[in-house]
Design a protein that fits this description.
The protein is α+β, with helices and mostly antiparallel strands and about 140 residues long. The chain has 2 domains: about 1-40; about 55-130, no CATH class. It is built from 2 helices and 3 strands. Strand 2 and strand 3 form a beta hairpin. The longest helix is centred in the first third of the chain and has 45 residues, at about 1-45. The N and C termini lie far apart (about 95 Å).
């Protein structure tokens, strides 16, 4: 019985220690959150102003580069699989689906080399690719 009474007297003391530890941890977490919020505010302030127009431009450029990469892959795969190691002629090549919304302009095209650009509907060049032997 006496031991039980002693244990009951110790419970509030142990609870008080836990509360102090919890308060200290909460205070530390609050300081860390405030520091992170300051860093986020500074990063957002330093970021150049950009909105939907910038996002659309970036997306358009990425899509054009994707078209150029897919077309280059098609050209190089055709050449590797051809007996004479030649790039395809216009009639032998189907443009990749990634190029549907873009215009591919052939700047130089022969059996041994190519250079092309990818433009948007207004004619602005968005990407350019050449074979290693191309111009």
């Amino acid at each position: 019985m006496r031991r039980a009474c002693v244990l009951l007297l110790l419970v509030p003391l142990l609870g008080g220690c836990q509360d102090r530890e919890a308060r200290a941890q909460n205070a530390e977490l609050t300081r860390r959150v405030e520091a992170l919020e300051r860093q986020l505010s500074a990063a957002q302030a330093a970021r150049p102003a950009g909105g939907p127009a910038d996002a659309a431009r970036v997306t358009t450029n990425a899509a054009a580069q994707n078209c150029a990469n897919n077309l280059t892959r098609e050209l190089e795969t055709f050449r590797q699989n051809s007996l004479d190691r030649a790039y395809p002629t216009a009639s032998q090549l189907d443009l990749p689906d990634a190029c549907v919304d873009h215009r591919v302009n052939w700047i130089a095209r022969s059996a041994g080399a190519y250079t092309f650009s990818v433009t948007d509907p207004t004619g602005r060049e968005l990407a350019r690719q050449s074979s290693q032997g191309g111009s």
